Amino acid sequence: MSRLALTIKNAWIALFFHIVYVIIQFYSRNIFLDNLGDEFIGIVGTLKSILQFLNLSELGIGAAVGFSLYKPIYENNKEKINEIIGYLGFLYKRIGFFVFTAACLLILFFPYIFQNTTINLGVIIFLFVALLTSNLLSYFFAYHVFLMEADQKGYMSISINQSVFVLRLILQCLVLIYFENVLYWIALELTTPFIYIFLLRKKIKKTYPWLIFKFKTTPEIRQRNKALLKKIKQLSFHKIGGFVSNGTDNILIFSLISPATVAFVGNYQLVMNNINTLVGQIFKGTNASVGNLVAENDINNMTKVFWEMMALRFFFAGCASIMLFVGFDDLITIWLGEKYLMSNYILLALILIFFILQVRQPVDSFKQAYGLYADIWAPLAQSILNLLFSIIFTIKLGVIGVFIGTILSQTLIVLIWRPYYLFSKGFEINNIRYWKGFLWHIVYLILSGIIFYFLFDFIGLWKTSNLFSLILKVFKFGITFTVIYFSILISLSRGFKNLVYRLVGYIKNRTKK
Q1: What is the gyration radius of the CA atoms in the chain, in angstroms?
Q2: Which residue ranges run through the membrane (predicted)?
Q3: CB distance 270 to 335 below 8 Å
Q4: What gap in Å lies between CA 324 and CA 313, rounded to an integer?
Q5: pLDDT, tens digit, 9 for 90 and up, residues 181-194
Q6: Measured over all CA atoms, what is the biggest interatomic distance in the chain, rounded to whole angstroms?
Q7: Helix, strand and coil percent figures for the chain, each rounded to 5
Q8: Which of 16, 287, 458, 472 has the smallest number of Cβ neighbours within 10 A?
Q9: Where are the chain's structural domains?
Q10: 6-15, 330-339, 446-455: segment of lowest average pLDDT
Q11: Helices then strands (H, E): number in the chain?
């Protein structure tokens, strides 16, 4: 299958499974809040953020290995693939032991960390152990999934992962409804990762029968992979920057405001994260495609694909942002009740963060494919700026201050520095070309927004009281903006035009077959 065909296959399978997962997750969130309470759900979010911090020890090993797999997969070098995956397992198992030890030590401080909560400490520790177990299983038994992703077969792992965890959510809802027992709920959190690991390894063995699961990493192999280890060290700094930007929000809110507020913000983040994940799953196969593209080293083709990806990300991000703005408050009200509504400024800040996360992806994909991680100062600067701005603005402005810190740090490092670095060190062409293209796409978006604003003002906005009315409202405004934005992009954006023609050609070929 071609790169485009595999990308599309990854996208539609990811889309299907994630939609099912989102529907179940939204329904279950309501049940969880009613039966477990705001404070408990806030603690769940805080514990997951703590585990993200412990997972910094992974330090980007998986991403570095994914980068190193593109060339041997392209050359069908099975011996080298076995060596790289074996080396990954060697590193991951040691990381797993470190995370386990660090987590055990951290539990000793739980009486101090959670001294102001009403939840039983034993329950909190049991919950943390359940969440920790899932992480440890991935370190010891699931690292082969990076081969699937690099080989554009990520749809296999997605289908298994989402199926198992949809089952978990359904069972957790039933446990709360019929047994009203939080320990049973946590027990399901603990056991379902084992099912996922079993099914995943079975699928990997069937897909790659030549893959050696008990590969022995000798000193000679470790010596040969010194370049990979160097990439891992560089990536470690980027991992820290990513965690501080995205993983410390709940910890700061827990520390500076309250555990219950973590739950309130978590409702908004749940929606945003699911949309981000959904779009990420749709585009996940493109990372391997970009890796193979870079391996071919055709600069004209690479820049052509880059602008196709950029135009498509702008299109997705722009349309999704409008639909979020139009329907978010009504969704929260219908889903959880007006009690859980937060300030419109918080909503706008989260939408802006969502937009940044989307339009940065083409740069990140090519940067990863080139293995450009030597700019270790950038994530450190991003981390410092993020924490500094977030703490200052949270103390002065409350919850929204956390998101202001994220927006400022990501704008300076992610939107300004990273494109410059990619075009200078990766493509090795004048980065003015990037700024021209990027700013023109901002203009196209603003132009679409202005046209939509007058239609929006003319049509008028109404409040909805049920899910059907909300869907109708979002669909109406979403389609209006999509048609406007699509028309402008297809007329003015060369990248978008090339992408549409390519997709139309692909569909025609599929139809003929």
Answers
A1: 23
A2: 12-29, 49-70, 91-113, 119-142, 154-177, 183-200, 310-328, 340-359, 371-393, 399-417, 438-462, 474-492
A3: no
A4: 16
A5: 889 999 999 999 89
A6: 71
A7: 85, 0, 15
A8: 458
A9: 3-512
A10: 6-15
A11: 22, 0
